[in-house]
Every structure is written in structure tokens, then in C-alpha cells.
Amino acid sequence: MLNAPPALLAWSVWGLGALLYLIAFYQRVAPAVITDQLMTDFGIGRAALGNLSAFYFYSYVAMQIPTGIIADRWGPRRLLTAGAGVAALGTLLFAAAQDIFWASTGRLLIGASVAVAFVSMLKLASHWFAPRQYALATGMALFMGVVGGVVAGVPLRLLVEAFGWRAVMGVSAACTALLCAAIWLWVRDDPSARGYAGHFQGHGAGRREPILRELAQALSYRNLWLLTLVPIGFSGAVLTFAGLWGVPWLRQVHGLDPKSAAAITSTLLVSWALGGPLLGAWSERMGRRKPLYVVTSAIALAGWAAVIFLPLPLWLLVGLLVPVGFASGNLIIGFAWAKESVPLRLTGTASGICNMGPLLGGMLLQPGVGWVLDRHWTGATAGGARLYDAAAYHAGFELMFGAACLSMLIILFARETACRQAA
Fold first, then answer.
1. What's the domain range around 181?
2. How confident is the model at residue 411, as a pLDDT?
């Protein structure tokens, strides 16, 4: 009998896919620290800036279901390679864009291409890791992604100040192209390609049903719908605050410099990254999904209520962002929960559908908050960029809170799986 793959080999194969997800997250939140430069270079306001950033989410969300189906049928290696290649092209286009149309096109290509990363990582995890390690691998995926978000904070701000945002994005395109080559050379869909026994227990590609029927089967599970909707509020709030509007809010309302503001939003992302694997592991240890998901959702909701509605001193505001981010890492419980809610042969499709939730949150809330800001703009500008007061940001952030309230209600209707895979 074949042996299971060595841990180092398994994590290295998975890790190359995780690097593309790191780049995906970096691209997702990078606009937060170059808002002024983008508005000045392209002559746009907050609503247009929110829409430019959200072009990433438009294509990312649209690609999730196709990505899940293709991952189930064709395997993650080819998906990851193609994704990294197109992401490099989109990043280069964004860096060279001279108007908002080409910048938006670049963001659209980036979102569509890196959309394959997370689902492909989950697919690799189901083949290269034992089932008991799935929640850990999913949590580590979020951790890797948030590392990319942290890189897009203070480090990116320093690089942009030193070299300009276009040059930094050009180098990002080159690094992504190198990753494309590395994935093709090293990653394999299953350990059997390296002479080891795989962990996947589902049906093979040759026994699949027609695509539309398979998609309909996945969508027939109510839990999958509910667990897709819940992250819209909680993860969407994190992506909206840390990915775009938190930095300008901290600068314009609290008077912080760009690097300090970026460091604070990075704190939210770091705590989010830590919460993912830890909450996933605790859920596995408890043998239940719902209790921990509900409790952490309530903590996140209470934290956002305090941040948005209370006149907090800066030190307390920063302190609250840590438990808010940590509790919002409960989306990792949701991914494992969604996987268990459908037959194993549908896990790629289910993961793609479920992964739409967090990105739908960013797609809807980022431009939504920008639209509200422009509605409350008093006409103030600085260096060609619009300035907004505390009342405008308060009104915009109320959208985030409302979405989180809806998510809190939805999670109550999900069915417990007790950490057991559906037959």
C-alpha cells in the first residue's frame, strides 16, 4: 500500500496555491493605502473610487461557481497556473493605466484570475491532507491571505512613497508571473502523481454528472445558501473597513498619518487571520459548528456597534478592532460547515458558492459606503482629493452594521452537522 505524502511535500504543494491567495488578498486591499493617488491620477471621487476597487469583487464573485465546477472536473493545478498568469497581466495593465477605464479593466482581470486561488486551495487540501486537517488548512489559507493584506498596509505605503504606486504594481506583476511558473512546475492535483496515497474519498472525474445538474444539486442544500449569506455582513465589513474606507476615515476624522492608519487597519486583518485557524480548530475539538459560529458572530456585531456608534478614544477603538477581527474569522467554521453539508463529490462546487459570501460583502459594501460618503460630501477638498467629515463616515458605516445584523439573524437558521460529512 502507498504511504501518505510527507507533511513537507503536502504543505509545499498547498503553499504555492496559498501564495496566489496571498497575492489575491494583497490586491484586494491595496487600494486602501493609495486612495489619494488614485483619485488624483484619475480625477475621481469616493463613489467612483469605491467602484474601481469593487471591480475586483465583481469578477471575483462571478467566477466562484465556475471555479468550483472546474476545480471538481479539471483539477486545481491548471486553474492556479492560468489564474496566476492572468493576474500578472491584469496587474501590469492596472499599473500602466492612464484612465479609469483601463484601471477598472485591470482590476476586473485581477479579480477574475485570483478568484481561483481559494477554491483551488480547498480542493488541494481535500486531496493532500487528512480530513481532520481540513479546517486547519482552511484557517491557514485565511492566514496566508491576510498576510497579503498586511503587506498591502504599511509596507505597501512605504514602497509607494519611495517609488510610486505604478512602479510597485509593476513589480507585483513580475512576482505573480514567477509564481505562475512555479505552480506549473511543482503543484500536482493529487499525491498519486508523486507516488503517494491521496486522502480524497469522493468520486473521480470520470463519474461526474452534467454540470448544470451538479450545480443544481449543490444549490438544493439549504445550509449552503445560509452559510454563503452569513459572511456578507461580517467578512464584508472587515473587507470594507480594512480594504478601503478605514484608512481615509482614520486620517480624516482621527487625524492620523497614512502609515499609522494603515497599521491600525492591518491590526484588524491580523486578528482576522489568527481567528480563522484557531476558531476552526476549536470547532473541530468541540465536534460542533453552530454554537461557536453564533457566539463569535454576536461578539463581532457588538464590536462593530461600539466602533461605529460610540465616541471612543483612539486607543479603545484600536483595542476593539482586535476581538472584532478575531471573531470575524468564524467564516472558516462556515467553510468547513458548508463542505460537510453536501456530498463529498460536490465540495469544489460548494466551496465556490460559499466563497461568494465574503466577496459579495466587499462588492456591495465598498461602493455602497462610497456612495453614501459622496451623498454627504460638504465640498471640502485637499490636493484634488475629497474630504469627508465624521457624520459622512458614520452614515456610510451604518451600511456595514446593517449587513452584520442581517447575517446574525441568518446564522440562527443553519442546521448543525456535528463535524460529520454528508453522505
1. 7-192+211-411
2. 94
